[in-house]
Amino acid sequence: MTDKPLRAGIIGLGVGATHAKGYLRSPHTRLVALCDADTERLTARAAEYDIPTELCFTDYRTMLAKAQLDVVSVCLPNALHAEASIAALEAGAHVLCEKPLATTLEEALAMQRAAEANQRRLMVAYNFRYRADIAWIRQLMLEGKLGKVYNVYAWWRREAGIPPSGWFSQKQLSGGGALIDIGVHVLDMALWLLDFPRVETVSGQVSSHFGKRGMKISSSKLWKPSIDVEAFDVDDGAFGFLRCEGDLTIHLHASWAEQRAPREDVLHLELNGTDGTAMMHVVNYVQDGTVQFYTEVAGQPVAVVPKLRWDGIYGHEALIAESMAALVNNQPAPVEARHGVIGVQVIEALYRSSQTRREVVLE
Ligand SMILES: NC(=O)c1ccc[n+]([C@@H]2O[C@H](COP(=O)([O-])OP(=O)(O)OC[C@H]3O[C@@H](n4cnc5c(N)ncnc54)[C@H](O)[C@@H]3O)[C@@H](O)[C@H]2O)c1
In DSSP terms, which residues pair with 244 in a beta bridge? Predict the structure, then answer.
């Protein structure tokens, strides 16, 4: 264990702002440097976190050379994750990379190799693991309350949720649409709850019905869309069917856009086991009343609807708190590079399956 706080830097200051909150809160870190190509964003964030001008950069390689960082968050458009993470690892920093870890399996493996070669950690920002409902389901799993889980439904479906930042809908920068963006989150939740069973085959089908027509792009007063509809070349909906070891099946559904209740955003996880079913249904990101457990007691079906207590912090802040504590105490990272690699491998195979209209066998 080291006493000196780790010097943290962030590359990309969109969702990077939530990483900043995590580093500012953790007793193990000091947020010392920021990087964003957009000088307006950079200046605004620097003022907010009191970062001096000489530690604000528009070029991450200069930041890595000058700021003597111990840990770096990579919060750039997906296609830049690999090169920025590898540069940070080679500069001697641990990396917390946003999801998806990369846009291809080849890049993800290169990142993992760079971490090993430089004896640094590569961690992945799967922040949705840090919610009270999913933590409770994980506890049910650890206690074996579901028996043998044989099937999982994992969805994230939005009425009008095409991200407004233009790069999300350009394959060259994003690697794909709804499937790689939000599908990777629910896929990780399912695989993590199941302790990463081996995925043997996948079948996928992606579609694009809305974005190309300029429909269902999310926006707000603060967040004006910067999408070029002409350049929209990714999926806005996707289905996946995964066969895993032990005859376990996973049904995946990710959509940025659907005709459904206005502004509805639904995250749904359902694990069907021989002794119980755990169900999490989150509408518009609420935290309470989202989870149920069904089982049989004395020969009768019963529903357990807990009122969960959760005194701690959620999402990125909790992930960063735990990851940094693990780092300084030399404990295993809560989200390992391997988890990010598997996510990319499955998503890539689902895209391939959709393109070839064939089931894909994973190695
Ligand atoms: N874990 C989550 O829940 C979550 C939520 C949102 C986004 N993300 C992920 O975070 C990443 C970033 O997404 P976002 O929503 O913040 O996007 P964004 O477009 O809001 O922010 C990206 C930032 O990167 C900057 N940038 C782009 N290229 C750069 C470069 N070469 N050098 C320096 N800065 C550069 C841009 O100026 C922009 O400010 C993506 O991988 C996305 O999938 C994760």
Answer: 199, 248
Q: How far is the CA of 71 from the centre of ligand 1 (A)?
A: 18
Atom of ligand 1 nearest to the CA of 16: 16
Domain with CATH 3.30.360.10 in the chain: 131-312+344-361
Residue range(s) of every CATH 3.40.50.720 domain in the chain: 6-128+316-329
- What average pLDDT does this structure show over 37-61? 98
CA 210 – ligand 1 centroid, Å: 23
Architecture label for domain 131-312+344-361: 2-Layer Sandwich (3.30)
pLDDT higher than 60, residue 1 = no
Are 80 and 15 a contacting pair, CB within 8 Å?
no
Q: How far is the CA of 225 from the centre of ligand 1 (A)?
A: 14
In angstroms, rounded to a whole number, what is the distance separating the alpha carbons of residues 108 and 99?
A: 11
CATH topology for the 6-128+316-329 domain? Rossmann fold (3.40.50)
Q: Other C-beta atoms within 10 Å of 147: how many? A: 12
Q: Could you tell me the CA-to-CA distances from 256 to 115, 158, 205 in Å, in that order?
A: 33, 5, 15
Nearest Cα neighbor of 346 from 12, 102, 80 is 102
Read off the pLDDT of residues 263-289 as tens digits, 9 standing for 90 and up. Answer: 999 999 999 999 999 999 999 999 999
pLDDT at position 2 is 60
Global pTM reads 0.97
Largest CA distance in the chain: 69
Residues with CB under 6 A from ligand 1: 11-15, 35-38, 41, 60, 75-78, 80, 98-99, 125, 127, 165, 167, 181
